[in-house]
Amino acid sequence: MKAAIVIPARYASTRLPGKPLLAETGKPLIQHVYENALKVREAACVIVATDDARIFDAVTGFGGKAVMTSDAHETGSARIAEAAETIDADIIVNIQGDEPEIEPHHIDELINLQATSGAFASTLACPFPSDATAGPGSPEDPSAVKALLGAALDENARWARFFTRHQAVWPRDADGRITRPERYYLHIGVYAFSKASLMAFAAAPAGALEKGERLEQLRILERGEKIAVGLIPRASPGIDTPEDYEAFVARVSKGAA
Among 160, 129, 159, 164, which Cα is nearest to 143's? Predict the structure, then answer.
Protein backbone atom coordinates (compact mmCIF):
# COMPACT_ATOMS: atom_id res chain seq x y z
CA MET A 1 0.00 0.00 0.00
CA LYS A 2 1.30 3.44 -0.91
CA ALA A 3 1.79 5.83 2.02
CA ALA A 4 2.29 9.59 2.12
CA ILE A 5 3.34 11.79 5.04
CA VAL A 6 1.55 15.12 5.41
CA ILE A 7 2.94 17.65 7.89
CA PRO A 8 0.40 20.30 8.98
CA ALA A 9 2.10 23.60 9.79
CA ARG A 10 0.69 26.95 10.85
CA TYR A 11 2.46 30.16 11.78
CA ALA A 12 0.37 31.08 14.84
CA SER A 13 1.31 29.48 18.15
CA THR A 14 0.29 30.71 21.57
CA ARG A 15 3.50 29.71 23.32
CA LEU A 16 5.95 29.97 20.42
CA PRO A 17 4.80 32.27 17.57
CA GLY A 18 6.33 31.58 14.17
CA LYS A 19 7.56 28.19 15.37
CA PRO A 20 7.93 26.46 11.95
CA LEU A 21 10.28 29.20 10.73
CA LEU A 22 12.59 29.44 13.76
CA ALA A 23 16.07 28.93 12.34
CA GLU A 24 18.72 29.25 15.03
CA THR A 25 20.18 25.92 13.86
CA GLY A 26 20.75 27.32 10.37
CA LYS A 27 17.56 25.66 9.09
CA PRO A 28 13.91 26.45 9.79
CA LEU A 29 12.29 23.99 12.18
CA ILE A 30 9.91 22.79 9.47
CA GLN A 31 12.93 21.76 7.39
CA HIS A 32 14.22 19.56 10.22
CA VAL A 33 10.81 17.88 10.44
CA TYR A 34 10.60 17.45 6.66
CA GLU A 35 14.09 16.03 6.25
CA ASN A 36 13.55 13.60 9.12
CA ALA A 37 10.28 12.44 7.52
CA LEU A 38 12.12 11.76 4.26
CA LYS A 39 13.98 9.00 6.11
CA VAL A 40 10.77 6.98 6.53
CA ARG A 41 11.24 4.07 4.14
CA GLU A 42 7.57 3.13 3.87
CA ALA A 43 6.50 6.61 2.70
CA ALA A 44 6.45 7.47 -0.99
CA CYS A 45 6.32 11.24 -0.45
CA VAL A 46 6.36 14.01 2.16
CA ILE A 47 4.22 17.15 1.85
CA VAL A 48 3.73 20.17 4.12
CA ALA A 49 0.16 21.47 4.38
CA THR A 50 -0.05 25.09 5.47
CA ASP A 51 -2.27 28.16 5.32
CA ASP A 52 0.66 30.58 5.53
CA ALA A 53 2.56 31.83 2.49
CA ARG A 54 5.73 32.32 4.55
CA ILE A 55 5.83 28.63 5.47
CA PHE A 56 4.94 27.61 1.90
CA ASP A 57 7.80 29.74 0.55
CA ALA A 58 10.26 28.38 3.14
CA VAL A 59 9.43 24.77 2.27
CA THR A 60 9.61 25.23 -1.49
CA GLY A 61 12.75 27.31 -0.95
CA PHE A 62 14.66 24.36 0.50
CA GLY A 63 13.31 22.06 -2.21
CA GLY A 64 10.41 20.53 -0.29
CA LYS A 65 6.83 19.95 -1.41
CA ALA A 66 4.06 22.09 0.06
CA VAL A 67 0.39 22.81 -0.56
CA MET A 68 -1.70 25.76 0.54
CA THR A 69 -4.85 24.94 2.50
CA SER A 70 -7.75 26.87 3.99
CA ASP A 71 -7.12 29.07 7.02
CA ALA A 72 -10.42 27.94 8.57
CA HIS A 73 -9.24 24.52 9.80
CA GLU A 74 -9.38 24.05 13.56
CA THR A 75 -7.28 20.86 13.65
CA GLY A 76 -4.23 19.46 11.90
CA SER A 77 -6.24 16.45 10.76
CA ALA A 78 -8.73 18.67 8.94
CA ARG A 79 -5.83 20.41 7.23
CA ILE A 80 -4.22 17.18 6.08
CA ALA A 81 -7.58 15.88 4.87
CA GLU A 82 -7.84 18.85 2.51
CA ALA A 83 -4.29 18.27 1.30
CA ALA A 84 -4.88 14.52 0.92
CA GLU A 85 -7.68 15.03 -1.60
CA THR A 86 -5.09 15.43 -4.35
CA ILE A 87 -2.51 12.91 -3.04
CA ASP A 88 -2.22 9.50 -4.69
CA ALA A 89 -1.81 7.30 -1.61
CA ASP A 90 -3.67 4.58 0.28
CA ILE A 91 -2.36 5.60 3.73
CA ILE A 92 -1.95 9.17 4.98
CA VAL A 93 0.36 9.81 7.95
CA ASN A 94 0.03 12.95 10.04
CA ILE A 95 3.32 14.08 11.62
CA GLN A 96 3.10 17.39 13.47
CA GLY A 97 5.30 20.25 12.31
CA ASP A 98 6.94 20.58 15.73
CA GLU A 99 8.27 16.99 15.93
CA PRO A 100 11.75 17.11 14.37
CA GLU A 101 13.16 14.10 16.23
CA ILE A 102 10.62 11.31 15.81
CA GLU A 103 12.55 8.17 14.89
CA PRO A 104 11.75 7.30 11.25
CA HIS A 105 11.58 3.56 11.90
CA HIS A 106 8.75 4.17 14.36
CA ILE A 107 6.78 5.79 11.54
CA ASP A 108 7.57 2.77 9.36
CA GLU A 109 6.09 0.59 12.11
CA LEU A 110 3.03 2.87 12.30
CA ILE A 111 2.42 2.59 8.55
CA ASN A 112 2.72 -1.19 8.67
CA LEU A 113 0.34 -1.31 11.63
CA GLN A 114 -2.28 0.66 9.73
CA ALA A 115 -1.81 -1.51 6.66
CA THR A 116 -2.31 -4.79 8.54
CA SER A 117 -4.55 -4.11 11.57
CA GLY A 118 -7.83 -3.23 9.90
CA ALA A 119 -8.09 -0.23 12.24
CA PHE A 120 -9.85 3.00 11.35
CA ALA A 121 -6.62 4.76 12.38
CA SER A 122 -3.32 3.93 14.06
CA THR A 123 -1.13 5.88 16.46
CA LEU A 124 1.76 5.40 18.90
CA ALA A 125 2.29 5.34 22.65
CA CYS A 126 5.12 4.63 25.06
CA PRO A 127 5.48 4.05 28.82
CA PHE A 128 6.10 7.11 30.95
CA PRO A 129 9.67 7.28 32.29
CA SER A 130 10.07 5.38 35.57
CA ASP A 131 11.15 8.56 37.39
CA ALA A 132 8.16 10.67 36.20
CA THR A 133 6.20 10.40 39.44
CA ALA A 134 4.95 14.00 39.70
CA GLY A 135 4.79 17.35 37.95
CA PRO A 136 5.28 18.17 34.26
CA GLY A 137 5.81 15.15 32.05
CA SER A 138 4.26 12.76 34.58
CA PRO A 139 0.90 10.95 34.37
CA GLU A 140 -0.66 13.68 36.51
CA ASP A 141 0.24 16.37 33.91
CA PRO A 142 -2.87 17.33 31.85
CA SER A 143 -0.70 18.21 28.85
CA ALA A 144 0.65 14.64 28.79
CA VAL A 145 -2.16 12.68 27.17
CA LYS A 146 -2.67 9.19 28.55
CA ALA A 147 -3.59 6.24 26.34
CA LEU A 148 -5.71 3.58 28.05
CA LEU A 149 -5.14 0.33 26.21
CA GLY A 150 -7.13 -2.85 25.74
CA ALA A 151 -6.56 -6.17 24.02
CA ALA A 152 -3.30 -6.95 22.25
CA LEU A 153 -3.00 -7.10 18.47
CA ASP A 154 0.50 -8.53 18.82
CA GLU A 155 3.45 -8.11 21.18
CA ASN A 156 4.02 -4.51 20.03
CA ALA A 157 0.48 -3.18 19.56
CA ARG A 158 -2.82 -2.95 21.41
CA TRP A 159 -6.30 -1.57 20.78
CA ALA A 160 -7.09 1.84 22.26
CA ARG A 161 -9.88 2.00 24.82
CA PHE A 162 -9.67 5.72 25.68
CA PHE A 163 -7.45 8.80 25.72
CA THR A 164 -7.52 11.36 28.51
CA ARG A 165 -5.70 14.27 30.07
CA HIS A 166 -6.60 12.98 33.53
CA GLN A 167 -4.47 10.74 35.69
CA ALA A 168 -5.98 7.37 34.85
CA VAL A 169 -6.12 4.73 36.22
CA TRP A 170 -6.29 6.22 39.76
CA PRO A 171 -3.87 4.42 42.18
CA ARG A 172 -6.32 4.04 45.05
CA ASP A 173 -4.11 1.78 47.17
CA ALA A 174 -1.38 4.43 47.10
CA ASP A 175 -3.77 7.26 48.06
CA GLY A 176 -3.44 8.68 44.55
CA ARG A 177 0.36 8.82 44.57
CA ILE A 178 2.06 7.64 41.39
CA THR A 179 4.67 5.06 42.30
CA ARG A 180 4.89 3.16 38.98
CA PRO A 181 4.61 5.74 36.18
CA GLU A 182 5.92 3.21 33.65
CA ARG A 183 2.55 1.46 33.95
CA TYR A 184 0.91 4.49 32.32
CA TYR A 185 1.13 5.06 28.56
CA LEU A 186 1.92 8.44 27.04
CA HIS A 187 0.14 9.07 23.75
CA ILE A 188 2.36 10.27 20.92
CA GLY A 189 0.36 12.44 18.55
CA VAL A 190 1.15 10.90 15.17
CA TYR A 191 -1.55 9.16 13.17
CA ALA A 192 -1.93 6.92 10.15
CA PHE A 193 -5.27 6.72 8.36
CA SER A 194 -6.49 5.05 5.23
CA LYS A 195 -7.40 7.83 2.85
CA ALA A 196 -11.09 6.90 3.14
CA SER A 197 -11.04 6.88 6.95
CA LEU A 198 -9.27 10.25 7.05
CA MET A 199 -11.97 11.82 4.87
CA ALA A 200 -14.72 10.26 7.01
CA PHE A 201 -13.03 11.48 10.18
CA ALA A 202 -12.61 15.03 8.90
CA ALA A 203 -16.26 15.17 7.82
CA ALA A 204 -17.66 13.92 11.15
CA PRO A 205 -18.71 16.40 13.85
CA ALA A 206 -16.88 16.54 17.16
CA GLY A 207 -18.61 14.69 19.98
CA ALA A 208 -18.97 15.54 23.66
CA LEU A 209 -15.82 13.71 24.75
CA GLU A 210 -13.66 15.42 22.13
CA LYS A 211 -15.07 18.81 23.06
CA GLY A 212 -14.51 18.17 26.75
CA GLU A 213 -10.94 16.85 26.61
CA ARG A 214 -9.93 18.76 23.45
CA LEU A 215 -8.58 15.49 22.01
CA GLU A 216 -9.66 14.91 18.43
CA GLN A 217 -8.84 11.17 18.47
CA LEU A 218 -11.82 10.70 20.80
CA ARG A 219 -14.06 11.47 17.83
CA ILE A 220 -12.98 8.13 16.34
CA LEU A 221 -13.83 6.17 19.48
CA GLU A 222 -17.12 8.03 19.94
CA ARG A 223 -18.09 6.91 16.44
CA GLY A 224 -17.52 3.28 17.43
CA GLU A 225 -14.37 2.89 15.32
CA LYS A 226 -11.11 1.26 16.38
CA ILE A 227 -7.67 2.80 16.89
CA ALA A 228 -4.59 0.56 16.86
CA VAL A 229 -1.76 1.73 19.14
CA GLY A 230 1.82 0.76 18.35
CA LEU A 231 4.04 0.59 21.43
CA ILE A 232 7.51 2.12 21.26
CA PRO A 233 10.13 2.46 24.02
CA ARG A 234 10.20 6.23 24.41
CA ALA A 235 8.91 9.53 23.07
CA SER A 236 11.03 12.01 21.17
CA PRO A 237 10.96 15.60 22.49
CA GLY A 238 8.49 17.88 20.73
CA ILE A 239 8.86 21.65 20.45
CA ASP A 240 6.11 23.50 22.33
CA THR A 241 7.88 26.28 24.22
CA PRO A 242 10.91 28.57 23.81
CA GLU A 243 12.74 26.34 26.30
CA ASP A 244 11.98 23.26 24.18
CA TYR A 245 13.40 24.99 21.13
CA GLU A 246 16.52 26.13 22.95
CA ALA A 247 17.15 22.55 24.07
CA PHE A 248 16.67 21.34 20.49
CA VAL A 249 19.16 23.92 19.19
CA ALA A 250 21.66 22.72 21.81
CA ARG A 251 21.19 19.10 20.72
CA VAL A 252 21.70 20.03 17.06
CA SER A 253 24.86 21.96 17.89
CA LYS A 254 26.22 18.88 19.69
CA GLY A 255 25.19 16.56 16.86
CA ALA A 256 22.69 14.79 19.11
CA ALA A 257 19.60 15.62 17.02
Answer: 164
